[in-house]
Amino acid sequence: MSIDLLAEIKKIGFQENEAKVYLALLELGRATVTEIGKATGMNRTTGYDILERLCLNGVANRTMVGKKHMYLAEPPIRLKQYLTNKKHTIENNLEKLDNFLPDLRSLYKTELKPGIKFFEGRTGIKNIYADALSAQSTIYSILDAEQYLPEFDQFGKDHAKQRTALKVREKSLVRRSPKAQEFWDNTYKNKPAKQKYTEYRWLNHDFLLSPAAEVMIFDDKVIGVLFKPGENFAFEIQSESFANSLKAVFEIVWLQSEPFK
Q1: Domain shared by 194 and 69, yes or no
Q2: In CATH, what number is assigned to the domain containing residue 146?
Q3: Do 128 and 202 fall within a single domain?
Q4: Is 29 within a domain?
Q5: In a domain, 55, yes or no
Q6: How far is residue 198 from each of residues 111, 189, 221, measured CA to CA in Å?
Q7: Cis peptide leading into 150, omega within 30 of 0?
Q8: How many whole angstroms separate alpha carbon 90 and alpha carbon 98?
């Protein structure tokens, strides 16, 4: 068996054992699986699998001689058709790939790419608050109670109770309003156990634009809760660098804010 021809056959896409079997067929003219195995040093099972694959690719053929299966190589010109078929298959697969490549890109994650989740409706919003109860670091919250209340008044109180029981700390920058003061008074005022894990400070800035109902920053996550008409959903961005950037901004504002009384 020519070593040079073996190398050339491998260059056009044959695996080494496929190339050996193909060249053996050319030399033998017609052979059984056993004869091919002797010529190539392969066991019967491996030789059979390769012969069937070569037949499937159109470069070999199988026939019956008496009661024996015999294999023979097709004329070498068939290699051109074999490569042409492979070319057409690759071209078709490239076209198909273009159709679903965007979906694959949306799934692809690296350490630098943030993961994003969306939660729709009131149930989805409540679920994202439940996830926040597993926070390992202090939750930094920016809250507009005017949007949050009165619908989520009882839910907010229950959530605060659960968070306190789990010893999850929260610092909240709260947009100043009568509703926010009332919620603090009813939920935290004169309740040392809850205040141990919760601290509110006023945002006295006169917002020209309506902010989100709440933004929470903890661990490597940033969560936004949107209650305005037409929104009614929440989102979660998981990115350590993004979360750390917002934590840094939060701490600057926190030091300049007025504590609740």
Answers
A1: no
A2: 3.30.870.10
A3: yes
A4: yes
A5: yes
A6: 32, 11, 19
A7: yes
A8: 13
Cβ-Cβ contacts under 8 Å for 13 (sequence gap 6 or more): 83, 86
Please state at what angle helix 153-165 crosses helix 178-187, rounded to 10 degrees.
Answer: 40
216: left (phi over 0), alpha (psi -120 to 50) or beta: beta
| Among 79, 106, 141, residue at a domain's last position | 79
d(CA 175, CA 254): 12
C-alpha angle 246-251-256 in degrees, rounded to nearest 5: 130
Q: What is the structure's pLDDT at 208?
A: 64
- Mean pLDDT for each consecutive 10-residue tract of the chain (261 residues)? 84 92 91 92 92 93 88 92 91 89 72 78 87 93 82 87 93 89 89 90 76 90 85 89 95 90 68
The partner residues of 64 in beta bridges, in order of sequence, read 69
Residue 102 falls inside a structural domain: no
- Using alpha carbons, list the distances in angstroms from residue 131 to 28, 184, 223: 70, 23, 10
Q: How many residues does the chain have?
A: 261
Residue 153: predicted pLDDT = 84
Tell me, what's the pLDDT at 66? 83
What local confidence, expressed as pLDDT, does residue 1 receive? 62
Token pair recorded at residue 193: 């156990």
Would residue 248 count as lying in a domain?
Answer: yes
Say how far apart CA 64 and CA 44 lie, in whole Å: 18
How many independent structural domains does the chain possess? Answer: 2
Amino acid type, 118? F
Three-state secondary structure call for residue 194: helix
pLDDT score for 166: 92
At 69, which amino acid appears?
A: H
Gyration radius of the chain over CA positions: 35
CA angle, residues 225, 169, 161, in degrees to nearest 5: 75
Enclosing domain of residue 46: 3-79
DSSP structure class, residue 261:
-
